[in-house]
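Let us work through a complete example step by step.
Step 1: write down the sequence.
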Amino acid sequence: MPNSIELPKGYESVLMEAYRKESLTAVLESAAPQGNIAQMEQLGEFYYPVYSMGGLGDVQANGRLPQNSGASLTWKPISANYDRGTILEIDQKVDAQSFNLAFGNAAAHFNRTKVVPEGDAFVFSTLCAGTGITKEQKTYADGADMLKGLNAAMCDMDEKEVPEEGRVLFITPTLLG
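Step 2: predict the structure and record it as tokens.
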């Protein structure tokens, strides 16, 4: 039986999946299905789908339903507010001699140690710079004091009717312990 070896289609999707697994802020990304945002040929330019359709109408006296006015799909362009990158060069011969591990390991290490931390820092700084965000720096005497503060924050969100579903707590290992 002949060998059947499928080569990867592209490293980008593999690197993006690795990014999502390692990134702290990936949980904040849209729950939209993959493929709903398309990157265009120009770097930093993306398109997302915009749907529109007619609404409900009155049922006619004979029980017939009204004809809907139709549906449309258009693509709206947006520009990235964060545009950074680099070229990671690994000699093809060296990569082949390493059984194609040189590029994969270098890319994984670069992703884990450079891309993910910088991306997370950008997301956190963007969120903290936003309006309507409660910003409070506080020093807690001990774990019990920190838990009281956390409980007070959760009660405040409950009072403001912030849904419990989808709440995310980012906390350092020291505070969590």
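Step 3: interpret the result. The first helix runs from residue 11 to 22.
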